[in-house]
Structures are given as structure tokens and as C-alpha cells.
Amino acid sequence: MALMASPSSTFESRPSFFSRRIESRPLFQTLGCRTSRSVEMKYDALKPILKELSDGRLCSPNLKDPKVPDFVVGQRDQELFPKPNRRLRLFSGTANPSLSQEVAGYMGLDLGKITIKRFADGEIYVQLQESVRGCDVFLVQPTCPPANENLMELLITIDACRRASARTITAVIPYFGYARADRKTEGRESIAAKLVANLITKAGADRVLACDLHSGQSMGYFDIPIDHVHGEPVILDYLASKMISANDLVVVSPDVGGVARARAFAKKLSDAPLAIVDKRRHGHNVSEVMNLIGDVKGKVAVMVDDMIDTAGTITSAAALLHQEGAKAVYACCTHAVFSPPAIERLSGGLFQEVIITNTIPVAEKNYFPQLTVVSVANVLGETIWRVHDDGSVSSIFQ
Fold it and tell me: Which residues form the Ribose-phosphate pyrophosphokinase N-terminal domain (predicted)?
């Protein structure tokens, strides 16, 4: 609101008028003042500016003028000069820092500064070393072995971001632990996948970005949006470089539960034929191969699975494929858990090559000649950009 003065009057000739106005409540709120002393100080700072108003109007001065104090900018002026667009911050836990660094490199960002340490009794301490107020925060932390340690670290980091007033928090989980406990197969069993989803939600995450969940229904366990990322594009790109003839290729599912995954994989490999290994499981991490559905004789068999844990299923299936006449067997998976004795089984000569991604870091002692690691950093980085910009994620994998 402009306060008009008569043409003949000047600011100096009427100091009492402005003194009364400067102590009124509306101007107190405009200037953000709390005490009469602060009003007086701010009034003194305004004197040189008000003297320059030749027409006798009291209005908002030029905001770009370096002589204008910051407190002069009111609510209406802030609307004329909006704040910058939402900012993006990328932080890494300790589970897979190399993957986080690759993702940051693809996105052209620096990883956020964060302190994560453990006390003598094993408790985890997390502190952000930079402001995230009003930012879109993405936390890269797979819950790979040690699963409980990494999961707790993820929850505490989410809590730290929430208490630091982050605008949104997205948990980027390249490997989602406890995903196999997604249903009850026997009485009195827990469904740990749902429990972990609840923990992540209650900790303060607004969104989850997960890579190749063990089963599709796990997405329904989250009460917040979840973006499902697939590692197959980078594996398909690598297989294309092997120059395997489409006529010699057959895609194999190591169990009945992975048929949908193998069928989608085969469709993108020039619609290759599909074979299925039928197995009967007698216990956790124990399996027995029964028979093969499909023809693999004289062909290159590519087995596709979401993870390799102890490698019992996939090595038993590879032995059956060789018995059925396959001339070479490739194993492809997204998550290389590699619990003992996986390395001994995989390096035993049954596989031409074992192709995995880096969603889980591979210890140096677990490398063997047939192992090939491809990176999903570009896929994760592109997905993060699209989530931040409200773009389509599914179009990446079409």
C-alpha cells in the first residue's frame, strides 16, 4: 500500500508521521521486527533510501539495489522473485560406496557430505554435514550382507534427513534384503518383507527406488510410491557384445517362479526360445533338480535369475543342461549375494561365464576367472533424474 504525501511536503518536513507509522503493527510484521529497538535500527537503515524517493511515495525500493537491506523484501516481493527450483542431494551409505560414486558421476553431482560411524557397542551414528532443508534427498544404500547392519543404517540415515527438514526422501535400495520372505509357505512364519517395508516407511521415506525385487508383489507391501528398476538392460547390452547367434540361443529359467522374468528376457533377445528347469526344494538354500522342460541340445543356454545366494539351484540346473546337450551355459543375475559355498560351485567349470551387476559389492576374494561384473549406475542415475523431474521411469525399460 502506498502512503501518499502532498506535493509540497517532503520526508524531512514530517518526521513525526513516519515515526508513528514505523511503530504500527502492520509495518512491524512487514519488516519482521520483534522489538522497538530493532524497529529503530531498521528505520535508520532505511533513511538513505527514503530520501531518494522524489515523488513522496513510500513503496518497495529496487530489490536489485545493493544498498537495500535484505529485511526490506516483503512477501509480495518474494512472489515476484521466486526461489530457485527444487534442489537434489545424493548421499551414500557404507554398504556400496563405489556404486554410489558411479551414480553421482553419471549424474554430474558430488556425493553429499555425511558422517556415519559405529560406537564400541555397535550402535550406528549418522550426521549430515550439509544442509538439506527443502531438498529432494536420495539415499543409496542396499541392504546386502550384513543385512541387519545395512538396514539399520538406512533407517537411521532416513531419520537424519527427515529431522533435517528435507523436502522429500527417496531410499535408493539396489538390493532389497528380506525380499524372499514375501509370503507364508508354512504355519507360524513371518512375512519379513512387509515388516521391512513398514520400517522404511515409518522412518520417514517418501519413496523407494528398488532394483529387481525377488517378487512383484513386494511392491504392494509399501504404503509409499515405489519405482521398480531392472538390471536386465545392462546385461542384455553385454550379451549383445558376445555375438551369439540367435539360432543358437535358448533362455533358461532355473525354477518355475522365474518363468515370467526369463520370458521377458528372452523376448528382448530376438524372441529366443524358453526352457524351464523343474526343481523340488527340501529346505532353505537346499534344492534338487528334477527335470527340464524344453530343448537345449546343441545350443547356448543363458540362465536368468534375480539373485545368486549359495548357487545351489543354478549349478544344479547347469549340470542338468550339460546332460541335456547344451554346448555352453551362461549364468546371468542382478544380485550376487555369494554366500558360501557359492564361489566354489560357480568356478567349478560348469559355466562359460557368470554375469552379474554391481548392486552388491563383490569382495576381492570372491572374484574368479569366469566372473563378469557390469554396472547399473547409469540406469539408477537416469531413474533418479526422472523421479526428481517427475518424468517417466517405465519408458527406460521399454
Answer: 89-204
